[in-house]
Specification:
2 domains, six-stranded mixed β-sheet, five-stranded mixed β-sheet, TRAP transporter substrate-binding protein, transport, DctP_fam, signal, TRAP_DctP_sf
């Protein structure tokens, strides 16, 4: 065999080895229309993943709506290995694994500080459950921001929700609004603006920044800034992908995600205040589109109702649902999150 052929074979083998050493990841992200967290934090992070992580890696990043995959299928996508990393929308994915709702029951997280404390307490429990049941390691969780009520008819408080159809993110909120005679309607985020405009629903619940990005103020008149949840989302990685990494690479990947998650916690709080200004026409708006919604003051009585909802309704209803598929669910929650409430 000639030296030229030998050299060519050696070069080919070297190139193949180099390509094999490069980590290739497929990442399924938040919906492209969901707002600035996806646009300004998540997508840039994954598109520059090698820089942020220090890993020799390439990433194919697709928002879930661009990929044409229902956001309710996040855990199934991870379990099957269709994507290596998925930005899990907690409320939607809870339909497959109700333990996720334990991060963010109605009435649990009245502030970002409470949300951080409660998610930290419950994190390992959820991670173990996802590893054993969905072939998924939980890498981190973060809040989209306080979930408030946008309505087409003018409302002054919770009592005015009677008889209205309200877009909700999960069953916990559906149960809560049902207590006021309203009907909770699950609906993908991208369909909500038109549903409001056409009267399919009269109200809808999301964070102010997401509502601004989705154009909800064009089809509504009033925002009631009564925080029901923080909309806890997270990042999961397929266990086969995770276990294929060296300990050093695992540390680099986890460290990069930790930095992203911490950044989103801070950014989410910043966006919440600014988006309220944008949605209500305050010229101090910096990041969104100016609209002219009426900002309805929140009554102390409504604040008390949301707080009481945790023990009166959302926790017992969720516990029954979660215990049905995971007998230790409620006791695990009480030993972790519940211990933070005492």
């Amino acid at each position: 065999m000639s030296r030229r052929i030998l050299f060519g074979l050696a070069a080919s083998v070297a190139m193949t080895c180099a390509q094999a050493d490069t980590l290739s990841l497929k990442v399924l992200g938040q919906p492209a229309g969901s707002g600035l967290i996806q646009q300004q934090k998540e997508q840039p992070f994954f598109e520059n993943f090698a820089k942020h992580s220090g890993l020799d890696a390439t990433v194919q990043y697709l928002p879930v709506d661009v990929a044409g995959i229902p956001d309710t299928d996040a855990l199934r996508v991870l379990q099957g290995g269709l994507f290596d990393i998925v930005s899990i929308r907690g409320s939607q994915a809870s339909r497959d694994e109700p333990i996720l709702l334990g991060f963010d029951l109605v009435g649990l997280n009245a502030s970002f500080e409470e949300g951080k404390r409660h998610t930290d307490a419950f994190f390992d429990t959820v991670d173990q459950r996802l590893q054993s049941n969905f072939n998924t390691k939980l890498l981190g969780v973060w809040p989209a921001g306080p979930q408030v009520i946008f309505c087409k008819p003018e409302v002054t408080g919770l009592k005015d929700l009677a008889g209205l159809k309200i877009r909700v993110g999960d069953q916990s909120v559906a149960n809560f609004v049902a207590g006021f005679g309203a009907t909770g309607v699950p609906m993908p985020f991208g369909e909500v603006q038109q549903a409001l405009a056409r009267g399919v629903v009269e109200c809808a619940i999301t964070g102010p920044a997401s509502a601004n990005s989705g154009g909800w103020p064009e089809a509504t008149t009033t925002v009631l800034p009564l925080a029901l949840q923080l909309a806890i989302n997270g990042y999961g990685i397929n266990l086969k992908t995770w276990n294929s990494l060296s300990d050093e690479d695992k540390a680099k990947l986890q460290g990069a995600i930790d930095t992203l998650v911490a950044d989103i916690w801070s950014y989410s709080e910043e966006l919440y205040e600014d988006a309220l200004r944008c949605n209500t026409g305050d010229a101090a708006c910096q990041h969104g589109t100016l609209y002219k919604l009426k900002l309805q003051p929140v009554a102390d009585a409504d604040l008390a109702i949301v707080k009481e909802a945790l023990t009166a309704k959302s926790l017992p209803v969720w516990a029954e649902q979660c215990n049905a598929v995971n007998p230790s669910c409620e006791s695990d929650w009480n030993a972790t999150v519940g211990a933070q409430l005492k």
